[in-house]
Each structure stands twice: as structure tokens, then as C-alpha cells.
Write the C-alpha cells for this entry.
Amino acid sequence: MSIKKITLTIVVTLLVISGLLMIRPVESSGSGESSSSQKSSGPTLSGLNDCIGPTELVKVKIREQSKNPSIYYYEVTNLYKSPIKYFILGDSDHPEMHGRPNSNPLVKESPKGWKGDFGYIYESNYVRVSWMISDEQFLIKLGETLGGFLVEVPPFPKEWEGKFNNDGLPVVPLNMKQVPFKVHFDDFTCVWGRPIEN
């Protein structure tokens, strides 16, 4: 291996470790194919500045449907030329939603043609709720609005009161109305913003 390749490998490894370069996992299709044979449905590498925001290219409305457990309904409107294929909650230009055992938000429901998921961001203590397109005929195109993204948040455990997160911030009940969103378009443009209460 040449000196240039070794140097590049070391630099990339250090960037990944430090969080300056983030590797996103490729979603499994569940078809039994190996990930190397699957066509990537979106970008797999991103830097700190890969998303632009706050944005006016997407409008996201949120409505609390019920309490204990709290269920939130999201509606996404696309005002950009390229269709939307990823919708993510909890991430803006940086992760914002702390993970909490037994009280993490979960996907309650997904619109037709979309697949929801919950996970930790880049092996951190932050979580995100996300949806990706599973049937391209249900992409959210320019001028279209799609609802049916539902998130359930379990009641806040009493044992978490008075505790602190790893970053020193106090553990508080999750307010989904303040949680940022991130959207990836079909042309790989990425934007983030804040939901509007409906």
C-alpha cells in the first residue's frame, strides 16, 4: 500500500472517530441480499455541514393526538423541486434528542410506502426517529403534503427526575414540539428545520 493511501486511511479514520465525518448505515431491504449488492438509496457519507437550515424548503406540522402515552402526528409539505425520500426527527445541524432507556420515542405508524425506524445516532447517546421511502411512487413531490408519520413517547420515568445527561444538561421530559427535523431529497440535498404546531 502506498504512503498516500495509508495517510488517507489514517485521516479518514481520525475524522470518523472525532465525529467530523459521519458514516450512515445502509438500510437493509430485508430481501436477504448482502449490503454490498444493494443499490444505495441515499448518501452514505456526510460531513458536519451537509445539511442547510433552518429551511423554508419543507414545512413540517406537528399535532399531539393523545397523552399518556403521548402520540404525535406529523405532516410534511415539500416546497423544493426534488422529491423527499428521508424524514428524520431529532437531528438538525447536530443531534439534539438524548436517548433514555424505557422512554425513547418510537415509530407508532408510517404512511403508505414509507418505513419507520428508531436508532441511536452514530454510536452516541442521541437518538433519532426516521422514515425512508420504501416505494418510490409515494415520494413527496414538489407542492405535495403527506401526513401519517406518528411517534409515540412513553411517560417520563420518575427515576429520571434530577438526573443529568452525559453532556451535563439535566434530563427533562421530551418535548417533541421542539425536536428538529431533517429531510433528504432525491437529489441528495439535505435540509433541517423546526416543526410548526398545528
